[in-house]
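Work Package 4 report. The design task specified in the project plan requires that, given a folded chain encoded as C-alpha cells, an amino acid be chosen for each position. We show below one input record used in the internal validation round.
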C-alpha cells in the first residue's frame, strides 16, 4: 500500500458530512453521505417485483429483536425503505450468518443485508451495492483534553488499542513516536483512557458511539478528530450483496440507496439508530 502522510489521510474518501439540526442533536453532530450530491441517476428500466432480503438477527443495532421479539434495526428499516422507493414487495428472512451465502445461492433470498465482507474468497464473486455505511476508526480522549489533543502530534502520547487489531497495526505504522498500549480486550482498552492510564484510545467508531453515553463510560470522554477511513484498514463498509448474475437487482438497489439519501430518508434512519453519531 502506498505510504500516506498522516495529514492527508482524511481525504482518502469523499464523505459528505451533513448537520443534524432539527433532530434533537447538538449542532456538531454530522450525518455521513457516501453519495455525490451533484450526481444525477436515472431510474433503472428494470425494477424487481419483489426483493427477499437475507439477514441474521443477532447484530444490533442493524438487525435484532426487541423485547417483544419483533425484528427491528437499521438494516430492517433500510430494507423496507428501499422496497418502498422501488415499489417492490419486500420480505426479510432470518438465517444463521454461516449459511447466508448458501441461502443466497439456493435462491432462498435475493440479497444479503447483514454486513457481509467483500474481502472473503467466497464473496468476491458476488455483486455488491455501493456502501451504505462505512465504519471508521475514531479517537476518544478525556473530556478535559478534547481541545488540547492533536492527532497530528502524538509523539510521546500513550494510545490504548486492542492487541492484534487493525487499530493497533495502523497506530504502530502511522504514529511510531507514540506509546501504543496493546491491551487484551475492547473493555480494557477503553477503560485505560477512562482511568487515565492512556492519553487516548483508538478504536471502532461505531462501538465507541454506544460506549461514550453508556454507564460504563461514566461520561469520561469524547470523540476527537477523525473519522479515519484509511484504505486497507478501515475502508470496507456495509453493502448489500446479490448473486453474480443478478445485476439488475443490484442496480435497482443502488439507485434506491441514492434516492433515500437525496430525499432525507437515509438521514432520518441514521439518526434513529445512531443518535450519538460516530462521524
Amino acid at each position: 500500500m502506498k505510504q500516506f502522510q498522516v495529514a492527508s489521510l482524511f481525504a482518502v474518501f469523499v464523505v459528505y458530512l451533513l448537520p443534524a439540526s432539527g433532530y434533537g442533536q447538538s449542532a456538531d453532530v454530522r450525518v455521513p453521505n457516501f453519495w455525490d450530491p451533484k450526481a444525477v441517476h436515472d431510474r433503472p428500466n428494470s425494477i424487481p417485483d419483489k426483493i427477499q432480503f437475507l439477514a441474521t438477527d443477532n447484530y444490533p443495532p442493524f438487525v435484532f429483536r426487541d423485547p417483544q421479539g419483533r425484528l427491528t434495526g437499521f438494516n430492517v428499516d433500510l430494507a423496507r425503505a428501499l422496497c418502498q422507493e422501488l415499489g417492490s414487495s419486500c420480505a426479510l428472512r432470518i438465517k444463521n450468518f454461516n449459511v447466508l451465502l448458501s441461502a443466497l445461492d439456493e435462491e432462498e433470498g435475493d440479497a444479503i443485508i447483514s454486513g457481509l465482507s467483500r474481502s472473503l474468497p467466497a464473496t468476491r464473486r458476488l455483486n455488491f451495492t455501493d456502501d451504505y455505511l462505512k465504519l471508521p476508526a475514531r479517537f476518544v480522549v478525556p473530556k478535559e483534553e478534547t481541545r488540547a489533543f492533536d492527532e497530528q502530534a502524538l509523539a510521546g502520547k500513550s494510545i490504548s488499542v486492542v492487541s492484534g487489531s487493525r487499530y493497533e497495526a495502523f497506530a504502530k505504522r502511522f504514529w511510531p513516536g507514540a506509546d501504543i498500549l496493546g491491551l487484551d480486550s475492547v473493555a480494557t482498552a477503553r477503560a485505560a483512557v477512562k482511568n487515565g492510564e492512556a492519553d487516548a484510545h483508538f478504536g471502532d467508531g461505531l462501538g465507541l458511539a454506544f460506549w461514550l453515553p453508556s454507564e460504563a463510560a461514566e461520561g469520561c470522554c469524547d470523540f476527537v478528530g477523525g473519522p479515519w477511513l484509511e484504505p486497507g484498514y478501515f475502508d470496507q463498509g456495509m453493502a448489500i450483496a446479490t448473486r453474480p448474475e443478478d445485476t439488475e437487482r443490484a442496480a435497482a438497489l443502488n439507485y434506491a440507496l441514492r434516492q433515500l439519501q437525496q430525499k432525507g430518508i437515509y438521514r432520518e434512519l441514521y439518526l434513529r439508530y445512531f443518535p450519538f453519531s460516530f462521524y
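Residues 247-262 form the longest helix (16 residues). Validation will be extended to a larger panel in the next phase.
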